[in-house]
Amino acid sequence: MRNFIAGDWTDGCENRQLAVTDPSDGSLIANVPDSGAADAKAALDAAQTAFNSWRTMSARDRAGILKNWHDAIVAHREDLGRLISREQGKPLAEGRGEVLYAASYVEWFAEQATRANGEVIPSPFGNKRLLAVREPVGVVAVVTPWNFPAAMIARKIAPALAAGCTVVAKPAEDTPLTALALVKLAQEAGVPAGVINIVTASRERTPTVVDVWLGDERVRKISFTGSTPVGKHLARDSASTLKRLSLELGGNAPFIVFDDANIEAAVEGLMAAKFRNGGQTCVCPNRVYVHDVVHDTFVAKLAERVSALKVGPASDPTSQIGPMINERAVQKIERHVRDAVSQGARIVVGGERIRKPGAPQSAYFAPTVLVGTTHSMACSCEETFGPVVPVTRFHVESEVVAQANATPFGLAAYFYTESPARIWRVAEALECGIVGINEGVFSAEAAPFGGVKESGYGREGSVHGLDDYQHIKYLCQGGIQ
Ligand code: SIN
């Protein structure tokens, strides 16, 4: 596979290769360019050239092309779903689901493109007329994570194109193939040359690529999903050219079960939220707080469900949890479990890597329930990003809300209660961008996705999703008698 620059498939300038492997067994899927600065610059030159014509295309025409792209993605649902599963490791049903989730953003922003209205402002002057219009900000640099190889590309590129921006993108080093497949479909759907450019690179060489975009004044916006340290680096290094930033960064989501909760529903919600993509989502519950009086019942029901989860390769249609993305990810999960146990937590289910016969290193981790976890443990204050549920007992609402908020992060939170008054109290007190109330699955193209505090800023999806890709220009016409 090759980079996609200016409408052409090109080899990396330095002829280095990056191997993309299947996390279920480490086998090679394909090689892609391990790009460098010259590739990043070529992509940016192409995006800047294309911007001049793409920005002047009518919103309706841009919307039509996005609609074609949406239809092509849906038509290739099966192939794309298999590709996502293969390179990322999520079970096939989830891979197929992600394709439709990605397509929903493309369709949504095709529609939003035609609704980016301006304003006519009541004039304070008899002889002047005042208007505000929306304009695309320019070239957007998109840097995406590996956990949703299709949805994150779609959630960033579709609004950029709808707004009239052009894109340079660097997909995650573990999962670049889905991005390349999507851009092939975009090309067939009529996206002109240079409007989307994809440059692939290894973890080591990603800074070389991204630094070119950070330092160049032609890039007017960066949209990044990934870790908080990298988000801070992007914020610092883009400051010299005052780029706009959308940062969807790390989370540490609390999941609270109150004593008046519907326990069956809470277990169901937790299973859906926690084990989606094997626990590898930014909005996964990372810490579970259960009220003392329902704690034991909840844990018993949860343990029964968790021990029944089937772990295996994404290609096996019966698998519910696939491999973790790579060895580093498994080692982090192992460290969190070890740390919790060393500080007094107890393993109820799972707790270790699953060794597959014949495989020297296995990326499978057993779905795990820990009880007796506390706020000082790594699993409570760092994002585990794996199938581990640490359960902490609590007694008082105000204390659990304070604990939930005692983190630099603020992406998502969940709670279960049957009390209408508590619903409002707790939803308003939680410091985060998204709250699941008696619900474990909330992501949707029509809803605003994003965090507060060190989980970043900007909102993706929803009627707000175009805002970061457009600026407002004020027009004042005088001389009106
Ligand atoms: C993420 O983990 O970054 C995205 C999850 C989602 O869109 O639901």
What does this structure look like?
This protein is of the alpha/beta class. It has 14 helices and 24 strands. It has helices spanning 37-54, 59-75, 77-88, 92-113, 151-163, 176-188, 206-215, 228-237, 263-275, 292-307, 327-342, 378-381, 397-405, 420-429; strands at residues 3-5, 8-10, 17-21, 28-33, 119-121, 129-136, 139-143, 166-170, 196-198, 219-225, 244-248, 253-257, 285-291, 346-349, 353-354, 364-365, 368-371, 388-394, 409-410, 412-416, 434-437, 452-453, 456-457, 470-477. The strands form seven sheets. It has a seven-stranded mixed sheet, sandwiched between helices. Strands 9-8-7-10-11-23 form a six-stranded mixed sheet, with helices on both faces. Helix 4 runs parallel beside helix 5 and helix 9 packs across helix 10 (292-307). The longest helix is centred in the N-terminal third of the chain and has 22 residues, at 92-113. It is globular, with a radius of gyration of 23 Å. Bound molecules: succinic acid (SIN). Succinic acid binds at residues 147-148, 151, 225, 248, 281-283, 443, 449. Succinic acid (SIN) binds next to loops.
How would you summarize the topology of this molecule?
Elements: E1 3-5, E2 8-10, E3 17-21, E4 28-33, H1 37-54, H2 59-75, H3 77-88, H4 92-113, E5 119-121, E6 129-136, E7 139-143, H5 151-163, E8 166-170, H6 176-188, E9 196-198, H7 206-215, E10 219-225, H8 228-237, E11 244-248, E12 253-257, H9 263-275, E13 285-291, H10 292-307, H11 327-342, E14 346-349, E15 353-354, E16 364-365, E17 368-371, H12 378-381, E18 388-394, H13 397-405, E19 409-410, E20 412-416, H14 420-429, E21 434-437, E22 452-453, E23 456-457, E24 470-477
Parallel strand pairs: 7-8, 7-10, 8-9, 10-11, 12-13, 12-20, 13-18, 17-18, 20-21
Antiparallel strand pairs: 1-2, 3-4, 5-6, 6-24, 11-23, 14-17, 15-16, 19-22
Helix pairs in contact: 1-7, 2-4, 2-5, 2-6, 3-4, 3-6, 4-5, 9-10
